[in-house]
Each structure stands twice: as structure tokens, then as C-alpha cells.
Amino acid sequence: MSEPDSSAAGARVAVRLGSDYMLRSLQMLGELADGELLPALISLAIVQANVAHLEQEGGFRELDEPPQDENRRPISILAIANGLGLPYETTRRHVEKMIAAGQCARVRGGVIVPTAALTTPRHREFVLANLANLRRLYRNLRRAGVSLD
Predict the structure, then answer these.
(1) Are 43 and 113 in contact (CB under 8 A)?
(2) Geometric angle at alpha carbon 60, from 24 and 78, rounded to 5°
(3) Is 118 helix (H, G, I), strand (E, B) or coil?
């Protein structure tokens, strides 16, 4: 029997550790959204769409706080549904509930997750827990000898 390819072995370790990271992240997202994973994923998709242009322009890395509402680009409910592969009506219902709860806001051109929703103590706790989770992933990848280059 031949020796396993080290790059294939490294890839298997990376996939296992990445899966662990992802499952921990999903658990945290679900907890942040009171056990409702789908609205949490929809919210995350909205946040990502709202600030994607800032990353492309290079200004996102310099921010200590979440971008203000006027710097967010709205996304349509249809674009969210298509991006996540969800039915439009399901997405619309969840977004409407999030709007009613103040977790999302309808603005000209679509919806945003307002800065106020991202600066609550609960959300900050989630961000710090996710950072710890990400550090754990990097630490475990290094320990396993997986190159991050």
C-alpha cells in the first residue's frame, strides 16, 4: 500500500477542522437568533450584501465599528432568496418578521440590517465568540501542519 499524498491528507484535515468551525458558527448563529437558523442565515446574507462594496473598495478593514446605515447598500428580497437558494415567499416572510422585530429595515432599494442591530451587547458577544472560534480553527490547522499560504 502506498503512502498517502501529504496534500490530500492535509486537505482532509483542513476539511474536518473547517467543518468543525462551520458547525460551531452555525450553532452560535442559531443561538443569536433564538434557535432559528434560517432567519439567522438570511440576516447574515443581508449584512454581507450590505457591506460587500466596502471590502471591494478596501475601506472595510479600517473600520473599528460596523458601517453606518447610510454606507450600507440595500439588497432586494429576491436577490437574498436567489443567493441562498430559498423560495421568495419564505425569504419574504422571514424578512418581514425581522423588520417587525427591528433586526432589519426596509429602505429605498431593498433591505439593510441597521447598525443598531449589530451593536447590541448580544451581537458583540457573538462577534467575540466567532473570533475565538476562528482563532481556534487557525490554531488547529497550524497544529495539524496545514499551510495557510
Answers:
(1) yes
(2) 70
(3) helix
Grid coordinates representing 65 are 465599528
Q: Are 43 and 98 in contact (CB under 8 A)?
A: yes
> Which of 131, 94, 91, 110 lies closest to 49 in space, CA to CA?
110
Q: Give yes or no for a contact between 28 and 136, defined as CB atoms under 8 angstroms apart.
A: no
Residues 75 and 30: their CA atoms lie apart, in Å, by: 22
Model confidence pLDDT, tens digit, residues 119-148:
999 988 998 999 999 999 999 999 988 877
Q: How confident is the model at residue 34 (pLDDT cuts 50, 70, 90)?
A: confident
Instruction: List, in sequence order, every residue forming a beta bridge with 106; answer none if it has no partner.
Output: 111
Greater confidence (18 vs 8) lies with: 18
DSSP code of residue 70: G
Q: Which residues of 40-52 are buried (b: 16+ CB within 10 A; e: fewer)?
A: bbbbbbbbebbbe
Q: How far apart are CA 109 and CA 52, in angstroms?
A: 16
